[in-house]
């Protein structure tokens, strides 16, 4: 029943059902909590409910999550800026599952560390993911390119962009934007123009404000 309310977007009703189950001392499957918190975290108005559900789930003596549910809770915690919980879940999964993290889980933890300003630790996890022969998908490449630019390693980011294209993916506008902004910060305007031409030839639309700023910078340097 709770799952039906969640699918219908009736988060409030699902929450009442959870309270009723607690009063009657009945235990609902952890996946119900995960679905509810994921739905609640879709908007900032639901962050309070999502945070309460994360706490409720963590207090359960029978705490156990499937890999996909563990990743879903991590994603919610990134939105809530509860980065320590992400790390705790990651450690718990590696200690108890006996399996390897998926590319989605790795990407979520890397993103969490970036949001928390722990870029070097995020990069260490990229190396771990690479050593595990984890096949990168588009979201993973997006996070890694952004991480490399944040570290001021534009050339490394560019290599990942090349690998992405070799794998058959099309770079997104935000990936080009991150790289262009990184090179612009170094004053490498020729490289910026090269990336702009590449993006345009690939049919990727770039932010007009970014192009305007680059035009102004180019004017000052001409």
Write up this protein.
The chain is mostly helical and 222 residues long. Helix content is 73%, strand content 0%. It has helices spanning 2-7, 11-23, 30-40, 47-58, 67-79, 83-96, 103-115, 119-131, 138-150, 154-166, 173-185, 189-201, 208-221. α5 runs parallel beside α7 and α9 runs antiparallel to α10 (154-166). The termini are far apart.
Structural domain count:
3
Distance between the termini: 66 Å
Element-by-element helix/strand order:
HHHHHHHHHHHHH
Strand count: 0
Measured by DSSP, the beta-strand proportion falls in under 5%
Helical stretch count?
Answer: 13
Work out the radius of gyration: 21 Å
Shape label:
elongated
Low-confidence stretches: 1-9
Structural class: mainly alpha
Summed over residues and divided by their number, the pLDDT gives a mean of: 86
Largest sheet, strands/sense/barrel:
none
Helix content: over 70%
Q: What's the assembly state of these chains?
A: single chain
Name some characteristics of this structure:
222 residues; mainly alpha; disordered N terminus; transit peptide; PPR_rpt; Pentacotripeptide-repeat region of PRORP domain-containing protein
């Amino acid at each position: 029943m709770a799952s039906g309310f969640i699918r219908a977007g009736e988060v409030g009703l699902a929450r009442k059902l959870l309270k009723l189950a607690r009063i009657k001392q009945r235990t609902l499957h952890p996946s119900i909590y995960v679905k509810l918190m994921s739905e609640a975290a879709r908007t900032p108005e639901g962050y309070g409910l999502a945070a309460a559900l994360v706490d409720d789930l963590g207090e359960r003596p029978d705490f156990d999550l499937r890999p996909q549910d563990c990743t879903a809770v991590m994603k919610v915690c990134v939105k809530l800026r509860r980065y320590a919980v992400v790390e705790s879940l990651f450690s718990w999964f590696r200690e108890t599952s006996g399996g390897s993290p998926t590319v989605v889980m790795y990407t979520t933890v890397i993103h969490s560390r970036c949001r928390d300003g722990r870029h070097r630790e995020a990069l260490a996890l990229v190396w771990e993911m690479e050593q595990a022969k984890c096949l990168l998908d588009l979201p993973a490449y997006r996070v890694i390119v952004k991480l490399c630019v944040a570290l001021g390693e534009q050339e490394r980011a560019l290599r990942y962009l090349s690998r992405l294209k070799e794998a058959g993916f099309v770079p997104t506008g935000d990936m080009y934007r991150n790289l262009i902004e990184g090179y612009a910060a170094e004053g490498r305007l020729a490289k910026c123009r090269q990336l702009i031409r590449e993006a345009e030839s690939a049919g990727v639309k770039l932010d007009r404000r970014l192009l305007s700023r680059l035009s102004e910078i180019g004017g000052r340097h001409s």
